[in-house]
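#data-curation
PF: Archiving a pair of folding outputs for the training set. Convention for this channel: one message per protein, sequence first, structure tokens after, nothing in between. First:
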Amino acid sequence: MTKNAITTRASKAIRVDQNAAAIYVASLGSESGRRTMSQVLNLIAGNISGNADALSLDWGALRFQHVAAIRSKLQEQYKPATVNKALAALKGAIRAAWQAGQISAEDYQKAVSVKGVRGETLPTGRELSSGEMAALLSACEDDKTNAGARDAAIIAVMYSCGLRRAEVIALDLTDYEIESGRLKIHGKGNKERTAYITGGAAHALADWLLLRGDNSGALFVSVNKGGAFGDSRLTSQAIYNMLQKRAQEAGVKSFSPHDMRRTFVSDLLENGADITTVSKMAGHASVTTTARYDRRPEEAKRKAASLLHVPYHGRG
């Protein structure tokens, strides 16, 4: 089928419950995953036909040659990891089309046989140093309002448990057992795991709970400018804004919420924790994912580079 044929079919209205992209996105377990893959599929649809988006394209019309062409075009513009993520979304939509009877099994198998892009890119993000973590918590301690105690607890729990933002805001008071320090985490794909709050993180959380009280509901609630508690659950954007605010107060270089998670993994591995255990603690589907967070090889390269002597003494 030609690109023009796909364009023509894309111009016709397709019911959402019959749209393969919509079916695929709805099957994803997390809100962030659904949002990301929707954006990726919109990008792919626009590349196939300038007037199409994910909800208007006829994904069942795609064949091997179309997927191969899309792969080639994406490879010209994006890094291998991004291309492979896009291919995963594309194959997911085509699989949904096959399951809905919109493409034959033979054409489906040929279309999804296009291989991913090989290559390595430098790891994204960064880790926070122990000094930066201390500065962040100190900034929260200096804030004597309820927000200061809450933010210190959030930062301590995010770091010590390696939580994603969505996992932080999903926590309920009943998910935490004070006596044992056990925390039940609601992870991606409706998968639950446990973590244990110890040491300074336990102290920070205890200080917050003393103020929060034992009312049922979210573990971390909103706090207005006057310091009064709200009854609403925090949003992902609120977590992001809080971390940026505390970083500015602490004089810490800007970082993403996910960098807290990277720091959690790297610090555990640096201190001798087994990578399989760390993978389970992080809620990763495979150890391969955990390994991408490991920055020890970069530190090893830095130390190796310092062994070399460049005999340059300057012009002064």
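PF: Second:
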Amino acid sequence: MGMEDHKLKVFCTVAETKSFSKTSEIIHLTQPAVSLQIQALEEIHETKLFDRSSSFINLTPAGEILYKYAKDILALYAEVEKEIGKITGLIKGSITIGASTTIGNYMLPTVIVDFKKTHPKIRINVFVCNTKRIVDLLNSGNIDLGLVEGEIAKHKMKMEPIIIDELAFIIPPYHPWAKKKVVSILEITKEPFIQREEGSGTRQMMEKYLLSHGITINDMRIALVLGSTESIKEAVERGIGISIVSKWAARKELKYGSLKLITPKEEKIFRDFSLIMPKSAVLSHAVDEFLSYLKSYPYDNLLSEGKS
């Protein structure tokens, strides 16, 4: 497994696309790397597999034979993995996820820890970065799936909402608002406000919401602009101002009572946490397992833990 089936995958892709450049795009290898894989196979079989004499790349008779079996061999490799997995009860492999900040820092860790309890052999890597970077990483095949908050331009991506996120005011527990359940969004202009940096998904969402209620940034008393939710929570705890964050981001503080959450009375601020993947993604067994786990996870229980 591993090296051998990788060479065969490259070979089959060249045979199907009849192009080294297309193959390098699909498999995310450089063209020289694609050529090297093919050369290695040609050395193993001591014969040419492709006829490169015309403008098209065609299979040689030997190539035809290899192609005929390569598909079956790859399918068998996959079967072997699944069958052995059934006996050992283990699904192995690794999953690489790109997650935007709120999801990557506040939601995903708990979900992954729970997933690992039942799938100890699956390795999970998470990149926390902005949505644009996640789309780039997906396109280049460096991650298996992306989890993003808010909108994305529908590129060649499948997008599927996983849960609804709610944003709300955070205030220190001794703030005059703390006795209220709801506060009018218009009250926000009277309070010193702590803002996220330009380009943050949470900030875009918040500005859009405020605008729909006729409030622009110029109407606000911006006390500070900070580059992370952690530093914003710290500043609010210290009484420098109020802010708006995802309920996920304030879970711990709500639980321990160092912050309070207040909902705007006009309407709640919702956005989707969504799963994005390339439309043509072929999923490994490990990714499959994780996706069904992600979709059926009891997220509400996690958020309600914070309430006394």
